[in-house]
């Protein structure tokens, strides 16, 4: 039980096969109470009800809206009394090439992945500051490190690279106040974001670039989030942790 008496707020965690839901489940297995945030109220509530243990809540929140982030954070703090852990997981991809990116594509992808990460952190930092404790885990991507991915598009790589910079800035500014911030960079993980978008040939090509020769599972990423959220990592801040089967070796 690594998260007994802890509480966590996880964005984009309603997707049944997603990284956020797997992380929520693992945190709940370790004793945490979870606030699942996602675009759809009903889906968020159903996902929370599906977690092991009691007292979890599901809340509607579009992370691109600062007022919605502030409202959801307040509701979660009121419900649990405190929030120890924030996982900024909500994200979208668009499989475009450089010259196909229209202003609205750029806005949509950077808004969810990068702006949402800032807004949700801003919604909880004053609370964490008051308590002089807290840990923030931001989900970036191998696409940020490689300058490209399979589905994401260059604007996705840019947004996720922005998440890495933002994480380090958060870590630097918040470290003296007892708050840690780290990023997780998943490689190719089988979730709804990847589902049905790959031909056999593409799959073969992807696996050829992964020394472990398999797609990651959502639970692989959840385990890393658990480490960064728990007291196993009390001296870890500003880091980017790769969960990619060796893709960058
Ligand atoms: P997913 O599509 O299964 O889940 C993403 C969730 O984010 C969904 O529940 C969706 O409703 C939610 N969401 C979208 N826009 C939102 C918004 N504006 N406000 C709140 N919620 C919103 O995807 P996933 O694979 O579980 O991805 C989770 C995170 O991991 C994302 O940030 C993604 O970029 C990142 N990632 C995934 C992979 C992979 O291979 N699956 C690899 C690297 C990084």
UniProtKB/TrEMBL annotation:
Family: Belongs to the short-chain dehydrogenases/reductases (SDR) family.
Entry protein name: 3-ketoacyl-ACP reductase
InterPro entries the UniProt entry points to: NAD(P)-bd_dom_sf, Sc_DH/Rdtase_CS, SDR_fam
Chain coiled-coil ranges: none
Any one GO BP annotation for this protein: fatty acid elongation
Short name of one Pfam family: adh_short_C2
Signal peptide location: none
MF annotations from Gene Ontology: oxidoreductase activity, acting on the CH-OH group of donors, NAD or NADP as acceptor
């Amino acid at each position: 039980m690594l998260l007994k008496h802890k509480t966590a707020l996880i964005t984009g965690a309603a997707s049944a096969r997603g990284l956020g839901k797997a992380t929520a489940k693992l945190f709940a297995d370790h004793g945490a109470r979870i606030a699942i945030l996602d675009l759809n109220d009903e889906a968020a509530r159903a996902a929370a009800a599906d977690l092991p243990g009691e007292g979890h809540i599901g809340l509607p929140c579009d992370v691109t809206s600062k007022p919605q982030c502030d409202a959801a954070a307040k509701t979660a703090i009121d419900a649990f009394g405190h929030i120890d852990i924030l996982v900024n997981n909500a994200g979208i991809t668009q499989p475009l090439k450089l010259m196909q990116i229209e202003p609205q594509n750029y806005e949509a992808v950077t808004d969810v992945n990068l702006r949402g990460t800032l807004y949700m952190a801003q919604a909880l930092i004053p609370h964490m500051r008051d308590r002089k404790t807290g840990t923030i885990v931001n989900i970036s991507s191998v696409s940020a490190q490689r300058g490209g991915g399979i589905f994401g598009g260059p604007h996705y790589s840019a947004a996720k690279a922005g998440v890495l910079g933002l994480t380090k800035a958060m870590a630097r500014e918040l470290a003296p106040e007892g708050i840690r911030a780290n990023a997780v960079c998943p490689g190719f993980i089988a979730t709804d974001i990847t589902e049905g978008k790959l031909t056999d040939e593409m799959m073969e090509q992807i696996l050829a670039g992964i020394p472990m020769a398999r797609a990651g599972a959502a639970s692989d990423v959840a385990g890393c989030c658990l480490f960064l959220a728990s007291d196993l990592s009390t001296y870890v801040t500003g880091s980017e942790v790769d969960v990619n089967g060796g893709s960058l070796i």
